[in-house]
Amino acid sequence: MRALIRSWPLSVPLFALVVLAFTWGVDLPVILVIIVALALAGAVSTAVHHAEVVAHRIGEPFGSLVLAVAVTVIEVALIVTLMVSGGPETASLARDTVFAAVMITCNGIVGIALLIGATRHRVMVFNAEGAGAALATVATLATLSLVLPTFTTSKPGPEFSTGQLVFAAAASLALYILFVFTQTKEHRDFFLPVGVCAEEEHAPPPAAKAAWISLGMLLVSLVAVVGLAKVESPAIEAGVAAAGFPQSFVGVVIALLVLLPETFAAVRAAARDRMQTSLNLSFGSAMASIGLTIPAIAVATIWLDGPLVLGLGSTQMVLLALTFVVAILTVVPGRATRLQGGVHLALLAAFLFLAINP
Fold first, then answer.
1. How far apart are CA 186 and CA 335, in angstroms?
2. Beta partners for 335?
3. 32 with 23: CB under 8 angstroms?
């Protein structure tokens, strides 16, 4: 049993492929829907794990890009799969997923990490310079991609014109790449836990053989994720409809699934009094979700039929603005307690409640 547990990074992707082979093109009964869902969640987790191994081996800044690209492939695969199979009502799925990712990372991951970390260590200390720079980048990306489409006039409705979409995608990608180089090259010390130097923070890289195995299993995991997402998509949409939730809640489900591994990693870091690592994970995930997903979806619209709705509604913009105001007040002092964690979790609860009951 212990050997099986230790070998999960290798066994789970292979199990996911087997499940994919037996369920492709089949009408799934309830039991198979559950098995496919478990295999999909496992494939997502192993993909992120193997991406982290490869990233650690090749070093920065390319390591961060490998991890971000792997997570983005998963997110885009889920979005595009559901958009292709869901029809016109999925025109806002990319917006709903990216917005959900921002709310979950900036409120959910930050809030849980602060609550658990401060319960153990009373006050959580972090670098305000690095966390503030990451938060500023997230706020800019979110405004460019999710707020501006509501107010532009070139196309009716909360949509970008082709030229505006190209600009937003290019600006998002450029800002993300600039941040990666700032974090990993020019100002690495801004993003390390307080009192920890770069040599102490980073463990020795894995052996080349382990990195090559992880690269192969990463590809297997991504293939399994894309295939299982296609198999599971009708069940996801049917489940949301059966629960009486709005169609937009599908985006919340996708974001929760994709961000699950980062949430566990951030909570573990906070429990070890590494709140800066938790903030890096939360804001970095939000940044990748916008800075890489929006350009990828923009390219995918070449093949997708129908409009691409990106602009947020008034309620969503209020929640987004309040999230950034609260996050600024949390980050600027460089110290936070359970109270700040509770405030962020209250915002997450408001987002989830209004997503179900708009």
1. 24
2. 125
3. yes
Please state, in angstroms and rounded to a whole number, the distance separating the CA atoms of residues 208 and 55. Answer: 12
135: containing domain: 2-356
The set of residues, in sequence order, having a beta carbon less than 8 Å from that of 174 and lying 6+ positions away, is: none
CATH number at residue 337: 1.20.1420.30
| Rama region for 195: left / alpha / beta (φ>0; ψ in -120 to 50; rest) | left
> Model's pTM, two decimal places?
0.84
Signed CA dihedral, 291, 246, 355, 252: sign only:
negative
Counted domains in the chain = 1
For 319, list phi and psi in degrees, rounded to 5.
Answer: -65, -40
Map tokens 């090259």 to a residue.
Answer: 185
DSSP string, 280-340: HHHHHHHHHHHHTHHHHHHHHTTT--S--B----HHHHHHHHHHHHHHHHHHTTSEE-HHH
Query: Which residue in 341, 337, 340 sits closest to 123, CA to CA?
Result: 337
Q: What is the pLDDT of residues 159-204, one digit of tens each?
A: 899 899 999 999 999 998 898 888 877 777 788 777 655 444 455 7
